[in-house]
Design brief:
The protein is mainly alpha-helical. 68% of the residues lie in helices and 1% in strands.
Length: 500
């Protein structure tokens, strides 16, 4: 047992293996309250509107504004590309509904991690956590942040190129501000997310409304022979779907904060369904708007489709588009960090990460250590890492583990038939989605075996890590003392305590 620190609110029990010991009702930690006499815990502050803003705000990033051309290139025609956008929206809805069942039957935060833990045990859950922590999430956050830095500076430097160091400095400021916001207040994080979500929808409306006006004026020449099949290749369709599913990724983030959702049995399914209908409609109508102004060839040649569209149709107002893209990226950063910090919080609570990560700030009631854990890795990758190649390594791992999660839903139907399921989807929905995920994983192995193999190897390092850090708990005494000292020191510096 570790020594107690001198400050009363920093008292805690630590078991010999470095994880929290079970606490009974008489332990002073469990009775801890802040100066306003409130329990130190994460409250249920995610309402339906905030839930919708988390999902929409993380799905709609920079992609729809910059490069919808991946789908067009691989589908071969304008008509087929629109069908792919709709089909990917429906498939993503299938995945989201599967997660809605999991979120209402397993009422724990943590998303993928929690569901894999429940269905397949701690080792597979740790492998997922390990890949997320050391590679996937810092790289994804750095890429989003770089897009923010690039587009927030573009109006200042037009028409010149932006110096790379200026982009990285703006990016670092963006990352730091998102971390600070999530550290200070759950309520304000949610309010800012709602505001940023409305700004994204406004940006999309600025594209859709003039585009629809052009369409009703009779600007339909680019839709003539929309289903011309001469350029359509069946071999390209899976890659088109891969691009589309990537554009819709983010529908699972609400499940990372289940414990903070007000009335999750109703809020989770409703927020997911409303969000996916809005996102699919926005994506399809935005692409239709693009095609009223640009031919397929012009769209494929454009570096940033929304900017090209605005220059052709909106004149001087086009300078506002990069700002909206930057705000969109900022919203995705904010929403994903809000959700991901809860996964690290739950993993610490399960004893698979240092226990300080499952502690809450004594006054602000935010999971401060879990929010900050991604900061050093993200900044490191921002300045020294080859981020884009790392994302290529890891893109297939996302679909592999999402497929495993939905497979876990099917498995739990038979393993735990009596588990309460307030929201239950027809079995064909998870089956179709699960097969889609594994098909995309197979496609990655076929189309890019080297990068996929490297990503797989990075993830497999989680297996020895599990046995070293989790399974074998007979650590040397000196190492245990260092870990205990590290936990206590961080707890004092960050002013955090275990949740009540």
């Amino acid at each position: 047992m570790t020594r107690r620190s001198s400050s009363a609110h920093n008292d805690e029990k630590v078991a010999a293996n470095g994880h929290k010991a079970s606490q009974n009702g008489t332990d002073p930690v469990t009775k801890l309250q802040d100066e306003d006499n409130r329990k130190v815990e994460l409250g249920k502050k995610v309402t339906l509107l905030r839930g919708i803003s988390i999902i929409i705000g993380t799905i709609i990033g920079a992609g729809i504004f910059i490069s919808p051309k991946g789908i067009l290139r691989h589908s071969g025609s304008i008509g087929m590309s629109l069908i792919v956008w709709i089909a990917c929206g429906v498939l993503s809805l299938f995945g989201a509904l599967s997660y809605a069942e999991l979120g209402t039957s397993i009422k724990k935060s943590g998303g993928h991690y929690t569901y894999i833990m429940e269905a397949f045990g701690p080792q597979m859950a740790f492998v997922r956590l390990w890949a997320d922590l050391i590679a996937i999430r810092p790289a994804a956050m750095a890429v989003l942040s770089l897009a923010f830095g690039q587009y927030i500076l573009e109006p200042l430097f037009m028409p010149c190129d932006i110096p790379p160091i200026a982009v990285k400095l703006a990016t670092a400021i963006g990352i730091t501000s998102v971390m600070y916001l999530n550290s200070v207040s759950v309520t304000w994080t949610a309010r800012i997310q709602i505001l940023l979500t409305f700004s994204k929808l406004l940006a999309i409306a600025i594209i859709i409304v003039p585009g629809m006006y052009q369409l009703f004026k009779g600007e339909t020449r680019n839709f003539e022979n929309a289903f011309e099949l001469s350029n359509v290749k069946l071999s390209g369709m899976p890659l088109a779907f891969y691009s589309g599913m990537y554009a819709y990724a983010g529908w699972f983030y609400l499940n990372f904060v289940t414990e903070e959702i007000d009335n999750p049995e109703k809020t989770v399914p409703l927020a997911i369904c409303i969000s996916m209908v809005i996102v699919t409609s926005c994506y399809v109508l935005t692409n239709v708007a693009y095609y009223t102004v640009m031919s397929a060839e012009e769209l494929l040649a454009s570096e940033a489709v929304a900017v090209t569209f605005a220059e052709k149709l909106l004149g001087n107002f086009s300078i506002a588009v990069p700002v909206f893209v930057a705000l969109s990226c900022y919203g995705s950063m904010n929403g994903s960090l809000f959700a991901l910090s809860r996964m690290f919080f739950v993993a610490s609570r399960e004893g698979q990460l240092p226990e300080v990560l499952s502690m809450i700030h004594v006054r602000r009631h935010t999971p401060l250590p879990a929010v900050l854990i991604l900061y050093p890795m993200t900044m490191l990758q921002l300045f020294v890492g080859d981020i884009y190649s790392l994302l290529n390594f890891m893109s297939f791992m996302r679909w592999l583990f999402i497929g495993v999660v939905v497979l876990g839903l099917i498995y739990l139907r038979y393993k735990k038939p009596d588990l309460p399921r307030p929201f239950k989807v027809p079995i064909f929905i998870p089956v179709v989605f699960c097969l889609t995920c594994f098909f995309m994983v197979f496609l990655s192995l076929y189309s890019d075996p080297i990068n996929t193999g490297i990503g797989f190897a990075i993830s497999l390092t989680g297996i020895p890590a599990y046995y070293i850090f989790i399974h074998f708990n007979h650590r040397p005494k000196w190492l245990q003392q260092v870990l205990d000292s590290f936990n206590r020191t961080l707890q004092i510096i960050l002013e955090v305590v275990p949740a009540d």
